[in-house]
Design brief:
- The chain is of the alpha+beta class and 239 residues long.
- The chain has a five-stranded mixed β-sheet.
- The radius of gyration is 27 Å and the shape is elongated.
- Helix 6 links the parallel strand 3 and strand 4.
Length: 239
C-alpha cells in the first residue's frame, strides 16, 4: 500500500472527502494529471467544433431564408421547390421549367431563376460545395439522340452547372451528376409522377469534417470520459 503515501493520492482523498461532505457530485478519475489535462483539452476542442457546426447550420438556414425571399414568385408558381433535407439545402426544378423536351440546353426563360439562385449562393454560401443532380422518368429515349436517360440527365445537370458558373458561382465548388431514372421521388405510373421525376436538384451541401477534425472526434470517441463520447456521437452526421 505504498501508493497511499504519495502526495497525489493524499490530495485525491482530501478532495473526495471535502466533496462528499459538501453534497457535491464526484467524477472519479484515477489517471495521472497529464491524462486529466488531455481530457480537458479534448473537451474544449469538441466544444469549439460543436459551436463551429452550429454556426454552419445557421449559415445554411440563412441561405434558405434568402432563397425563399428571392424566389417568392417561382415558389408560388411551383416552378421551384425548396427544402432542407438530410443531404443539404435542396432546390428542385422540374425539367419542363429548364429545358425543351429531350434537350439539354437551358431555356432562355429559365435563366433569370438560375441567376437568382446563383446570387444567393455567392452571397450566403460561397464556401459550400454545390451538387447538381439530373434526374429523368423511366420512359426510354426514342428520338432525341441521347444514348440513354443517364446521358440526358448528365447533360442537363452539366448545363445547369455552366449557368451557375456564368452567374458567378465558383466553378471549383460545382459538381454535376446524372442519375437517369434510378432515383425517382414518386411512381412513374402516372403522367404527374413522371413529371415530378424529371427534375434537376441543386444541393447546397453541409460541410464535412476535415482530417484533423475527424481525428479529434476519434480521440473523443475512444476516450474514457463518457461526456466526450456523447459529444463525438453528436457529430457523427458530419463525417
Amino acid at each position: 500500500m505504498r501508493f497511499l503515501k504519495s502526495p497525489g493520492w493524499i490530495a485525491f482523498v482530501v478532495f473526495c472527502t471535502a466533496a462528499a461532505t459538501s453534497g457535491c457530485g464526484v467524477n472519479f478519475y484515477f489517471g495521472r494529471p497529464t491524462d486529466l489535462q488531455k481530457i480537458e483539452q479534448l473537451s474544449k476542442g469538441m466544444d469549439r467544433l460543436k459551436q463551429q457546426k452550429l454556426a454552419e447550420a445557421q449559415q445554411l438556414q440563412d441561405t434558405e431564408d434568402l432563397m425563399r425571399q428571392r424566389l417568392q414568385q417561382e415558389l408560388s408558381d411551383k416552378q421551384v421547390k425548396l427544402e432542407m433535407a438530410e443531404k443539404g439545402l435542396v432546390l428542385t426544378l422540374l425539367t419542363e421549367v429548364l429545358f425543351d423536351s429531350g434537350k439539354s440546353k437551358v431555356r432562355t426563360a429559365a435563366e433569370p431563376t438560375l441567376e437568382k439562385i446563383g446570387s444567393v449562393i455567392r452571397e450566403k454560401a460561397a464556401d459550400r460545395e454545390i451538387g447538381i443532380e439530373g434526374h429523368t422518368d423511366n420512359e426510354p429515349i426514342k428520338r432525341s439522340g441521347w444514348k440513354s436517360n443517364w446521358e440526358l440527365s448528365t447533360g442537363r445537370a452539366t448545363s445547369v452547372l455552366h449557368e451557375l458558373e456564368q452567374f458567378g458561382v465558383d466553378p471549383h465548388r460545382l459538381v454535376a451528376t446524372g442519375y437517369g431514372e434510378y432515383r425517382p421521388v414518386t411512381s412513374n405510373d402516372s403522367t404527374e409522377g413522371r413529371q415530378q421525376n424529371r427534375r434537376v436538384e441543386i444541393v447546397i451541401l453541409p460541410k464535412k469534417l476535415t482530417k484533423g477534425e475527424k481525428e479529434l472526434v476519434r480521440r473523443a470517441e475512444t476516450s474514457s470520459d463518457p461526456d466526450l463520447a456523447r459529444k463525438a456521437i453528436a457529430l457523427e452526421s458530419y463525417k
